């Protein structure tokens, strides 16, 4: 599996954790918790 830099942060406006992968344009996900956002972005990377 490839390793990509993933940026996860708290969005006060959306009240969730967006996750972005800068090396893969358009590859984004979000979750209610940090762990959920990470799991979701890992799935997005696989797609």
From TrEMBL:
Residues 11-46 form the HicB-like antitoxin of toxin-antitoxin system domain. InterPro entries: HicB-like, TA_system_antitoxin, TTHA1013/TTHA0281-like. Pfam families: HicB_lk_antitox. PANTHER family: ANTITOXIN HICB, UPF0150 PROTEIN SSL0259. It comes from the Bacteria. This is HicB-like antitoxin of toxin-antitoxin system domain-containing protein.
């Amino acid at each position: 599996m490839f390793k990509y830099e993933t940026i996860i942060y708290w969005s006060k406006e959306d009240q969730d954790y967006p996750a972005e992968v800068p090396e893969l344009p358009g590859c984004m996900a979000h979750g209610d918790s940090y762990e959920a956002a990470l799991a979701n972005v890992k799935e997005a990377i696989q797609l």
